[in-house]
């Protein structure tokens, strides 16, 4: 059975993720206590079900400690288990809770001191939740949803579903350093040392996908040198990540604005590696 476990920080998009999987034909269960996971899988097997998606969050904090053992048990039983851990920067989470006017799930469960009426602030709830879930974050692939629209997140999750059958999915993601390094990056490369097309007014409106910027960067020897170094590094260590039974490897390439150099580099790396690997392409700062 294919099983996708969705967990992570409240407000990071777990409901959006679960809805995408439901549309893809998965039987979905939200907020399942981890202690019931094995029984649920057994029940679904008796019903000859093929795909199962389960959301588990901090509301089941008391039983999260046993989740790694349950996941390994299911894998030993022959199930294809993938874990998606959704997270986001604190400021993004605060904005989302403010927009929806919903309270944090922990706000009614935890208090600041000995007085039960002293509620934690939203930022304190988020910090406590990060601490609660820190032990299971490393169990799967981390998706940083900071600044993402719900529609863009849906697209990313669909890519995840499509790539679930591959032994390892290699992800190349461009980003802008001025907006922060992606939280889900496994490898980060900085291409800000390269000449910036932004300072050429004729190139500024374009991106690294457009021919004028491509021609500008291709003409620079240092661009090819840096590309070759990144390509060779990934090719050298990719077998080790596969041997470590990784499901996903995210390679993030950053420049100042996430529009030109990083986009060009990610596009070129994707074209090279998709000849032999399952590759997913992301441009975080592009619409």
Automatic annotation (TrEMBL):
Keyword list, A-Z: ATP-binding, GTP-binding, Nucleotide-binding
Source domain of life: Bacteria
Residues binding GTP, per UniProt: 57-60
Residue ranges annotated for the RapZ-like N-terminal domain, each copy included: 1-161
HAMAP family attached to this UniProt entry: RapZ_like (MF_00636)
The species this protein was found in: Paucimonas lemoignei
Name of this chain's protein: UPF0042 nucleotide-binding protein
Record: residues binding ATP: 8-15
UniProt KW Nucleotide-binding keyword: yes
Location of the RapZ C-terminal domain: 169-286
Entry GO MF terms: ATP binding; GTP binding
């Amino acid at each position: 059975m294919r099983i996708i476990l969705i967990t992570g920080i409240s407000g990071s998009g777990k409901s959006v993720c679960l809805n995408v999987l439901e549309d893809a034909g998965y039987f979905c269960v939200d907020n399942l206590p981890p202690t019931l996971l094995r029984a649920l899988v057994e029940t679904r097997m008796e019903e000859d079900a093929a795909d199962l998606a389960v959301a588990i969050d901090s509301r089941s904090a008391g039983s999260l400690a046993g989740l790694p053992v349950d996941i390994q048990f299911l894998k030993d039983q022959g199930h294809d288990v993938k874990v998606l851990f959704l997270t986001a920067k604190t400021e993004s989470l605060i904005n989302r809770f403010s927009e929806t006017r919903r309270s944090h799930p922990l706000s009614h469960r935890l208090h600041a001191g000995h007085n039960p009426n002293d509620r934690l602030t939203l930022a304190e709830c988020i910090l406590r939740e990060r601490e609660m879930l820190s032990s299971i974050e490393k169990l799967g692939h981390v998706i940083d949803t900071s600044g993402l629209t719900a529609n863009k997140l849906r697209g990313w999750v669909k890519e995840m579903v499509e790539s679930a059958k591959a032994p390892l999915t290699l992800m190349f993601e461009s980003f802008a350093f001025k907006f922060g390094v992606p939280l889900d990056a496994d490898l980060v490369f900085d291409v800000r040392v390269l000449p910036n097309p932004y300072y050429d007014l004729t190139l500024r409106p374009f991106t690294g996908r457009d021919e004028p910027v491509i021609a500008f960067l291709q003409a620079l020897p240092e661009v090819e040198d840096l590309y070759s170094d990144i390509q060779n590094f990934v090719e050298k260590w990719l077998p080790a990540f596969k041997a470590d039974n990784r499901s996903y490897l995210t390679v993030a390439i950053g420049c100042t604005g996430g529009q030109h150099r990083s986009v060009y580099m990610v596009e070129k790396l994707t074209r090279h590696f998709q000849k032999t690997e399952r590759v997913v392409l992301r441009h975080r700062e592009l619409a």
